[in-house]
Amino acid sequence: MANAMRLFIAEKPSMAAELAKNLPGPMARKDGYYETSGGLVTWLVGHVLRQAMPEEYNEAYKSWKIEHLPIIPPSWKLLVSPNTKDQFKKVKELIGRADEIIHAGDPDREGQLLVDEVLDYVNVNGKKPVYRILLNALDPVSVRRALDDLKSNRDFQTLKDSALARQRADWLIGMNGTRAFTLAAQSAGHKGTMNVGRVKSVIQSLVVNRERSIQAFKPIDHYGIKALFEHTNGQFAATWMPSPEHPGLDPEGRLIDKNAAQKVLGKFIAGSAGIISKYSTEKKKEIPKLPFSLSALQIAASRKYGMSPQQVLDATQTLYDKKHLSYPRSSSDYLPESQHADAPEILKAIAGAGHNFAQWVALADPAIKGRAWLPGDDKRITPHHAIIPTRMAPDVSKLSSDELTIYCLVAMHYVIQFCEPHVYNQTI
Q1: pTM: predicted TM-score of the whole model, two decimal places
Q2: Tell me, what's the pLDDT at 381?
Q3: What pLDDT is recorded for position 1?
Q4: For residues 133 and 204, what is the distance between their CA atoms, to the nearest angstrom?
Q5: Could you say which of 33, 34, 320, 327 is catalytic?
């Protein structure tokens, strides 16, 4: 369409600003949006629409009564949130002016729903063309590349549906469960509200069950025997392994009979000779670990540095906002094949970031293409790929401790994709 007015709807102001900077022409900040010759860019502030409460479906639900349950809306109702009504009004006005709309929510299911629910609310779909831009990183090259690769927003219907299913399940379980448990508790003499949630209640159950098992735990002594051997090639330790039929074992194969252990120990005499009855050496190969998904990054940071999942998410999100890492809320640990061409620039950026990154990069060969890169349009990298560094390296001296820790982990896992497998001898 000639001279079509194009409107980008981002999930948050920071995303809108980065988009606007990379559109053609000068950028002008207006009331609630940016104006460029390449289009207008506006933004939401999280969910500008909220789910209606039960009493907003039926006033009778203001009173909590067991006979009302379950409450299942005949059709789902969204309402404009009071604290975001001004921005919603601006977005609605701009949608009315636009000839075509670019959905620029975060590339995950929640980001998909945030913008889609607004488009549904103002009844846009089917009346104007709607496209989807997937921003896996906010550096200029990545943004421009995404602008050149717009998709039809219809292709992401299932992503929206999964977010909608989650949202409605939260409502149904939360509203009905909270009322049911509260009424039951009050009839037994308890006061207050018994909050129930689709996720919260399950987590509480896990914590309670774990605490109960800890309190009920009874320690059981079990015995093991280790010996140190001297050999002409060096000293080595060995552990006695009982056969499954050995007397004194519990169902888990541990020796719990002290007398049986003493009897075995008596067979070993210090200074006596042992016999190596079987010996084998096998060459093993360990391939590099894949880049990080968010959950894998949270696990690694927790195990190695004691960071909480929220600390990891916060640091990763900040590094993304600063354009140093790709999109953080990724469930994939693979990379699209097309991304491999960016390796020399990304490795160069990592090397220039300071710390000891240059030493790591010196070991890398950007020509190597390991198992992290999937050929073609693989479903495992839709709609976003593993978390990796961008071409815009940070000044590590300006990073917080958490940010530096996360950048180091992500950078290391990216660099090792370009290293040869670790080869070693395994001796039994």
Answers
A1: 0.76
A2: 58
A3: 43
A4: 38
A5: 327
Neighbours of 357 (CB within 10 A): 22
Residue 205 reports pLDDT greater than 70: yes
| Residue 280, helix vs strand vs coil | coil
Report yes or no: 336 and 385 within 8 Å, Cβ to Cβ: yes
SS3 155: helix
Partners of residue 7 on adjacent β-strands: 40, 101
**What single string gives the DSSP state of each residue in 213-255?**
HHHT------B--EEEEEETTEEEEEE----TT-TTB-TTS-B
Q: What are phi and psi of 390, to 5 degrees?
A: -105, -175
**Residue 210 CB-density burial (10 A; 0-12 exposed, 13-18 middle, 19+ buried):** exposed
Predicted confidence (pLDDT) per residue in 115-134, tens digit: 999 999 999 877 899 999 98
Structure tokens at 301: 């940071």
3-state secondary structure of 33: strand
| Count helices and strands in the chain by DSSP H and E runs | 13, 15
Q: Enter the tokens of residue 353.
A: 């970031």
The pair phi, psi for residue 373, each rounded to 5°, is -95, 120
| Distance between CA atoms of residues 27 and 35, nearest Å | 6
Structure tokens at 272: 């006596």
For residue 230, give both structure tokens: 């001297």
Active site residue 424: no
- Bridge partner residues of 214 (DSSP): none
Per-residue pLDDT for 104 more than 90?
A: yes
Distance between CA atoms of residues 409 and 319, nearest Å: 13
